[in-house]
Amino acid sequence: MCHFKISCLRVQAAVTQPECLEKTDDVSIGSAFACTFDGVGTCLVTNYHVIEDGVSIVVHREHLGLPNVTTRVLMACPDLDFALLSPAPEGSTPIPVHCGPLEPGEQVHVIGFPLDSNQLRTSTARLNGTKDEYIQIDGGICAGNSGGAVTTC
After folding, report:
1. Dmax of the chain from CA atoms?
2. How far, in Å, are 111, 135, 139, 140 from residue 105 at the CA level?
3. How far apart are the C-alpha atoms of 96 and 36, rounded to whole Å?
4. For position 149, what pLDDT does the model report?
5. Confidence at residue 2, expressed as pLDDT on a 0 to 100 scale
6. 44-78 burial by CB neighbour count: b if 16+ within 10 A, else e?
7. What is the pairing mode between strands 3-13 and 21-37?
8. What single string gives the DSSP state of each residue in the chain?
9. Residue 30: which of 66, 91, 71, 79 has the closest Cα?
10. From residue 124, how far is each of 60, 84, 109, 113 by CA, in Å?
11. Sign of dihedral through CA atoms 121, 111, 108, 137?
């Protein structure tokens, strides 16, 4: 399996004691997918806003009949809304990364766990355009899809 649902318990630093972290009831839900990077191995890729301020990141695998596992942030880039999580669950199958040019009008697929669902969903969209490292698509993306793959396969 290469697509996963993740949840992240967020914390806030206490103003009076910055070294202490206070738990909140704020849990972020999103999606992630497995990908392999040279020198790093297989990691999970997600959006930064899904794991921002998180102290406990859980990879949900109930839909596979497997126990949940915890992971940690390996690298995060808030400016690009990008994060790598490691380790990826054992047996994760990486998806291929498209590194070539994208063309407007190209069909893409949005894959994730929308609306805190335990079922993986795929919707089809069209690429409207690109600018620098950003892409714009016309497909619907629901809460919970954040961090899921947008793929041409």
Report:
1. 53
2. 18, 12, 12, 16
3. 8
4. 80
5. 66
6. bbbbbebbeebeebbbbbeeeeeeeeebebbebee
7. antiparallel
8. --EEEEEEEEEEE-SS-TTSEEEEEEEEEEEEEEEEETTTEEEEEE-HHHHTTEEEEEEE-GGGT---EEEEEEEEEGGGTEEEEESPPTT--PPPPP-S---TT-EEEEEE-GGG-SS-EEEEEEEEEEETTEEEE-S---TT-TT--EE--
9. 71
10. 24, 25, 5, 14
11. positive
Number of C-alpha atoms within 13 angstroms, CB side, residue 115? 4
Burial class (CB in 10 A: 0-12, 13-18, 19+), 149: buried
pLDDT for 27-63, tens place per residue? Answer: 888 888 888 888 788 889 999 988 888 878 888 888 7
Tell me the CA end-to-end span of the chain in Å, nearest whole number. Answer: 15
Which of 71 and 24 is assigned the larger pLDDT?
71
